[in-house]
Amino acid sequence: MHLAINHQMHPSNYRDFLLKKYFDSHMPIKWLALVADVSMPTAANHYTGSILLNHLVEHKKSLFQTLFIETNQIDYHMWLQISRIKYFGEADSLQIAVGDVIVGHSWIKKYFKEEDHSCHYGLGKTIITDCGIPAVGFPPTNSIAIDLPQVKIISNYNRHDDYIAEISYPDY
Q1: Could you report the per-residue pLDDT of 19-69, keeping only the tens digit for each?
Q2: Burial letters for 50-86: b for 16+ Cβ neighbours within 10 Å, e otherwise?
Q3: 42, 67, 116, 146: which has the highest count of C-beta atoms within 10 A?
């Protein structure tokens, strides 16, 4: 992720412009981010915790392209309410650790901020497609293929007690 992180640019105005485009077209945005933290449930955040996503970038055609070549940063950080995650695969639960790369699709939600009296956009209903550590597979050195290296997210590694959130589907 170090190569993909834009340490200089924090485009919060750009975020609203980009996300409004997805909101207006009723299409989900594909994104990738680095998990940085989690907030605990409180009445202020609707009794649900939130995951802090650092360096949220728009997901391109391949993970390698998204991570290393065309990094279109949406924002340097954004919160995703855990209650908005509606699907994360066929497993019963998903452990999320600090430092994991998380990949998802989100529909955009419009909200109003009292302090600046304006509309903003954030992540709404979300599907998590991958969460874990990226592993890059480079083509053999004697290969003449011009294909990009393949990146795969390894999600079934043992996080021991280092995960910050574990989400599961409700009983119903």
Answers
A1: 888 999 999 999 999 898 888 877 665 667 889 998 888 887 777 777 777
A2: bbbbbbbbbbbebbbebbbeebebbbbebebbbbbbe
A3: 67
